[in-house]
């Protein structure tokens, strides 16, 4: 099974070796046809603390690092 890769924006980098990435997905409503956007936040592992708030990053699934961290940053 392949690992999921998501693109999103860094919304917090206050924790050590952790960033919070907000991923926006857009889809069409099944009945009304209007485009709806939904957001999810994911905690991702950032080993060297090199990503700052506002940057676009890609995150990939990984083995659980802590209670909330199951994602790691792949690239900017």
Task: Chart the SSEs and their pairings.
Elements (H helix, E strand, L loop, with lengths): L4 E8 L5 E11 L6 E11 L10 E6 L9 E5 L1
Parallel strand pairs: 3-5
Antiparallel strand pairs: 1-2, 1-4, 2-3, 4-5
CATH T-level fold name? OB fold (Dihydrolipoamide Acetyltransferase, E2P)
| Element pattern in H and E | EEEEE
How many H/I helical runs? Answer: 0
CATH-derived architecture? Beta Barrel
Summarize the structure.
With 76 residues, this protein is mainly β.
Key features of this structure:
mainly beta; five-stranded mixed β-barrel; 5 strands; globular
Task: Describe this structure as you would to a colleague.
This protein has 76 residues and is mainly β. The protein has one domain (5-75): OB fold (Dihydrolipoamide Acetyltransferase, E2P) (Beta Barrel), CATH 2.40.50. It contains no helices and five strands. Strands 1-2-3-5-4 form a five-stranded mixed β-barrel. The two termini are 24 Å apart.
